[in-house]
## 1
Amino acid sequence: MKKLTVALCIFLLLGTVVFAQGSAEGAAKKSNLRVGMVTDAGTIDDKSFNQGTWEGILRASKDYALDVKYLKPAGTTEADYLKEIGNLVDAGYNFIICPGFKFETAIFEAQDKYPKVKFVILDGEPHSADYSVFRIEPNVAAVYWAENESGFLAGFAAALQVKEGDFGFVGGMEIPAVQKFNWGFQQGVKYANEKFGTKIVMKQENNLYQGTFDNVSAGQQIAASMYDRGVDVIFAAAGGVGVGVINEAKNRAAAGKNVWVIGVDVDQYPEGLMPNGKSIILTSAMKYLDRASYDMIEAELNGTFPGGQVLRFTAENDGLGIPATNPNLAKSVTDEVAKVFAQMKSGAIKVAAVGDGLFK
Amino acid sequence: MKHVKIREKQSNAFLVAVSAVVLGLVAGAILMASIGSNPFTGFWFLFRGGLMNIERVGNTMATATTLMLVGLSVAFAFKTGLFNIGASGQMLIGGLCATLVAHYVFLPRPLYLIVLILAALLGGALWGVIPGFLKAKFNVHEVVATIMMNWIAYWSIYYFIPAYLKGPSLETESASIAVTQSLRTPWLTKLFNGSYMNLGFFIAIISVIVIKLILDKTTLGFSLKAVGSNRHCAEYAGIKVNRNVVISMMIAGGLAGLAGLSFYTGYSRNMQIGVMPAQGFDGIAVALLGASSPLGVLFSSLFFGILQSGKGFMNAMTSVPPEIADTIIAVIIYFTATSVLFKRFWDAVLKRQGDKAKKKEESAQAEVKKEGE
């Protein structure tokens, strides 16, 4: 029993030592804006949606000395999301960013429950669970991207670079954002074929949705069978499934095969790096997620928060595009892409957001 | 001269569970301290997060509901010497049956609830009885069989939801159940200030009582426990072992099906594909901490409920990152799940004390004798 007492004493001492460290946690901050984020399915370092959004928040916190925090819900149900939103609100966070369409119903509830808290939802807008009511309150801003335009640019760039070959598409879940990437991608490739004489083939069998955003091994298998069928470039708009596609491409490239992947959401070039310093990522169809979260925070600080509005990030407002640097694209290709981007901005090129006459 | 009889002391389940929890919390505290956070404030916010206001208490109870039913399922199978690792699959099928009823059956509320509960019970029981039958008939180990049943359920859901229960725009989850068709009721939601508290909690409490009665007061319970403590002996005594194995798995499955009911029609109101409910495994820890007794499960599930619903608030208030918070919870679960070690420890301590007391008694007696001479 004596030993136990000694052990307890030591533990308590340890506790007090740590207490001293702990009190330094809350450093003084200038603004009273405290920014919280609730992550969607997946981790904060998902190289995609969560990470992109969080990077924007971090950038804002650096520039404006803000208190920021992210929480990871236990699951992906509305109840799980609302719980974490409630945790952030109870902890004093008054500006909450939720990346992903899955937050739509949770934000619908939260906008009434916490009228003093500002919310930003990316890739969706608040509506009731049965889709009967769409309503956005003045404390919510919803952000959409024109994924079709981003997909168009990436498809066009890849087609110009490769000139002749077979392109495939792997999607995650069959949801509007992913579908629009797919449709835009096909239009971009077609545009290159028609206007620039490239000879890119696309087949229905090489265009599919895996059904999840986290099944890495399934992504790898799908990529393997596509590459076996002679596909040269795969556009993977599929989160974790896309990681599997990238892994397979790396394996093949390491074995001397000439295969490529087009990344999605963020610049995935670093993900495709191989030991020899080359990357199998040809280019990426980006949505400037960090810009969205940064801009929204900035707007709130300037008193111009677009509450009650549904915003669209498009080529026109520089909300999307391919990465600024593309080591795997020729200079002539990026120049052409810049021209197309300018035409898209001016409205000379229109990219359909529907799949009429396209695969799926 | 009086002879004092010293009874051999045995550790009781409560002592074991409490020491496991305390040590788990200490281990969690050390982990928090090692990443530079103050464990005292950490735990303060953890428990406040679970119990701070009536809404949070409601959420804690709603979280505990599912764990309680799964824990009960696992504990019940334990009693018959079976390890039901398939609660996740039974939850899914029970939840699927309940979701189907919720979308397609419209009846007056009391009658509807009975149909809903029966559907979940039957679905879960079906998923439990198959491994039970395989075990009884072909001696297929239930761990293997129930794990496989988990995956059959998982992929069946994967097919079933998009095909028959699809939401208006999403392929990956079922259409949301109307509140009037769910386990949530306006008066409970109001009482708990808009929390997820639902009728499932009462179903869980009733289940605890029913299972306790079955185990303690019925012949069935006696024979189930006899099979659990010694299969061969039970057989020798004329108890139909195989029949009991099947019945045990059926009831365990039914309980897990009810857990699915509480989760998918009370807590979340829709089903998502591609998600194996983690509660199916957390329930094992709940059962272990509760020493496989119905009342133990009741309390341990409430404890886990507090941990799980308080976690987020701890994250929000401290600098403990969410991933570390998960680790801390896992450490606590780990210690509680290995509560057998604490039982040994306390048994040894008590035995030593008992021996000491005995020795004292003996020497005292010897002295008395000496004096007598």
## 2
Amino acid sequence: MIEMHEVYKKYPNGVSAINGIEVRINQGEFVYVVGPSGAGKSTFIKMMYREEVPTTGTITLNGVNVAKLKNNKVPQFRRQLGVVFQDFKLLPTLTVYENVAFALEVIEAQPKYIKKRVMEVLDLVNLKHKARMLPTELSGGEQQRVSIARSIVNSPKVVIADEPTGNLDPDTSWEIMKIFEEINNRGTTVVMATHNKEIVNTLKHRVIAIEGGKIARDEQRGDYGYES
Amino acid sequence: MPVMNKEVTTVMKVRTLGRHARESFKSISRNGWMTFASVSAVTITLILVGVFVVIMMNLNRVAETIEEDVQIRVHIDVAATEQDQNALKATIEKMPEVGSVKFSSKEDELNNLVKSMGEEGKAFKLFEQDNPLNDVFIVKTKNPTDTMKAADQIKKLNFVSKVNYGEGKVEKLFKFIKASRNVGIVLIVGLFFTAIFLISNTIKITIIARRREIKIMRLVGATNGFIRWPFLLEGLWLGVLGSLLPIILLSIAYYRAYDYIGPKLQGTFIRVLPFDPFMYQVSGILLLMGALIGVWGSVMSVRKFLKV
């Protein structure tokens, strides 16, 4: 469960990105975060995985108050969630398998378990046969699937995705969305910032629209609501 | 079962260390030219430091032998009776600076003189019947630097005809040794920090090249310690690698130099330090310095990148 209470974020340069947000996302929900560029979407997402810290207010994720989290507790916290980015953030010198295994090596999991678990998630994203390839040998969609595999290899309760289809063509975007649906069907909460009108309007889920740092709209099975 | 859990974590730690070591080696070979640059920086620094340490330690050794050799020769007036001599000895021994007082009769003095001259000295044997030398007290001070002060005081005592301690030369030597010691320490410290700066810069470049990797590691929940280890080990290897060439070069050079200079110094009071154990100690120092420079350099540059 994710809860934000009276959250404000003002950057050191004086920009107020978030101006009082109150929201509650239950375990197992699928939420789109939409809104115009510069409306605070990115900050909203970044505060969830504690890339940014709110100026005031509380953010609770899996029972942890993210706003008050000490620096040395951040690694432990991040292991409980998966993050997916628009630019994939894969390591170019590592193979597909190694990129995914990386997230488990970091938490010092047993080698046997790593092997089993990595193959499991690569199977889920349909990339088992490309495990030994380098990211540069893959298409954009395939790279994003590797990055999704890495985000769920820790079996997190929450997956946060920041424009995961932003760099992909429509067909590939649908493939990616299918994987997110699958992840969500297994009980994982998915919070996804997106600009993809077609996807939001077709694959109906809760929509949170952010404008001027505030929640302008919060609808179950909502529409994208903007001209793309 | 807490005991078993503990065992498991220990095993994992060892495995993780293995992973860090592998990562650090990979990085060293991947950054070929950067590795070369930082290893050469350490090498050059340590060669300079090494040469300096060798010279300074030997100079110190020479100084020590000379210091040990500094003694005050108190020539006793011929008129002094045995009683006077004993009184004089007692007075000198009571002086706070004085460590030991040894009596050397004029016969001993003549013998020493004859011995020190070798073959030609035999001519002096003629004087055995009518010895022109004085009885002498050989005075050693507790601290060699007090020599002058003690000599001045002894000079004023009764039944002292002459006081000898190599005036002027001793003072100059002490001054020279003190000055060169200080210059040496300043230079070594300066070089040390230069090398740390060079290494930390090299590792900084490695880290900038791997900033993405570090960011991703942080995103998937790697602790700072986990991220830091490979860089730390990399710095350690760079430092150790950089110390190898200086150790080999200096050892060969010292071995040759010792072979060459050693025999020439025989017969003089100057002694240089023998290869064993001196060069092993210097090698140890260089290795340790290399390791320290490497680790310190990497710690300094990693720290900046790990602020959450």
## 3
Amino acid sequence: MKQFFIFVKKEFFHIWRDRRTLLILFGMPIVQVMIFGFALTNEVKNSKIGILDLSKDEATATLSQRISASQYFDLVENLKSSSDIDASFRKGDTKMVIVFPEHFRESLLHSNSVQIQLIADASDPNTATTLINYASAIINDYQDELMGETKLPYTITTQTRMLYNPQQKGAYNFVPGVMAMILMLVCTMMTSIAIVKEKETGTMEVLLVSPLKPIMVILAKAVPYLLLSIINIISILLLSVYVLDVPIAGSLALLMFTSILFIITSLSLGLLISSFTASQQTAMLISLMGLFMPTLLFSGFMFPIENMPLPLQVISNIVPAKWYYYIVKSVMIKGLGIEAIWHEVLILTGMTVFLLTVSIKKYNVRLA
Amino acid sequence: MTDEKVITAKALTKKFGDFIAVSSISFEVSKGEIFGFLGANGAGKTTAMRMLCGLSLPTSGEATVAGFDVYKESEKIKKNIGYMSQKFSLYEDLTVKENMRFYGGIYGLTDKRIKEKSQQVLADLHMEAEQNKLVKSLPLGWKQKLAFSVAIFHEPAIVFLDEPTGGVDPVTRREFWEMIYQAAQNGTTVFVTTHYMDEAEYCNRVSIMVDGRIEALDTPTNLKKQFDAASMDEVFLQLARKAVRQE
């Protein structure tokens, strides 16, 4: 046991003295959460719009005012004629133009029907759709007010509730994703590199000639990264709760327990990679190409798995991050308990046992 | 040197599939002997050494190291040997002291013993001033001498040195061999592979491997007589030219 602690201490020296890696280890989670939280958001805020008001009456003034007052839109231009519309888009800043026809109020009051044209820059289709929806919602609200108590003979109104994430914040989606990604990266890549490094420098041979058991070498290599990853989880959670306002809806203990399970899965993957690679570069490439990309693509964090062709859906099942992502979403965002995720926890446990058995077996084989 | 045999090998063989890396080699090494293990690249030296260190199981034959069987007692063998690989075997990002602390620790030495021994090694190497420097900041010759001291830090019965002086200047090599002699005098058996024929002359006995077999085994003086050669270099060349196997 004493030998084990001496070994772990040595590993901490390695990590501590490699300042650049240390910075990546602790800086990466913070930077990623910040980038995803503030830069890569798919919420649309302060989009620049123009309004072409051809009737300039009380109703259009109210509507214009309401639209420009909303946080989603930023009225930058009052257009004079329809020929200005094209020019406005061509300048590149304008994302949407609202056109009120002539005699807006009169038509509305007398013929009970009037049209508003919403022209959006669909070179980014998602943003365009979102903007149109926001604008339509504001216009519908106004219409409802006008109608007041008078009910139309047949109307179906839909009532929408956005469960778990009423404000539809992007952070609810990516915090679990970033957690899965960081843990995968730190545990798998760092452990495999740390072990392969000893092979590369020749110290692994010396360790194998020593009375230390191979399993002890492997465990001692993994322990520091387990601790570092737990610190990373805590920092991600603190950031998401206090900076991004994403609350932890479920049990923190369950969240930590499943996270540690996933860390161990990633560590065993790292061990497996290190057992069949001989250079640090190879280990890094395999970790990045073989794990980082699939984690990004198949965890469901960026692209919905349900929309993928069947073969890809099947492949996504072997990506551990997919299951962890599901667990974190369920526990952290939806506040569900173990009864909702035991299935996924079982799958992760199975994967871990399998990976650990294979990699320890590979290590116990003598170097021959 | 006494008559006590610390390494014995009888018809030791290692095959990788159809390839016979080591073909039925037999030899004995006495306590306190400096045993040179020579051969061209690919002759099977490293494979033979790995079997003796318990890193690789022989395909057939028998061998004991420090009185323990290589098949069944590799754990006990490991406790009684030191090893210095041809690659540099210290941690460059640890200090001199931390390296000694680590290697002493994994061999189960007590803290007190590690402290005493560290002081002694530092004094012998005249490196007291460098004890808290990172190993990577030391010149290669110092590193190599330190690596040897660390390999015999736990006072093993046998130390295996795999091309320990590669890339080292002649003066340091000389000093390195003085350390080897010192260790042998203290009763440590030294099993050393090398490509430098002048170093072969320093050994008590030398074996030369060609294509997985031991083609010659005797003292340097007798070998030179046997092959009618002026130096070990000539002896080696005469034998190595017979090699069929390429690297």
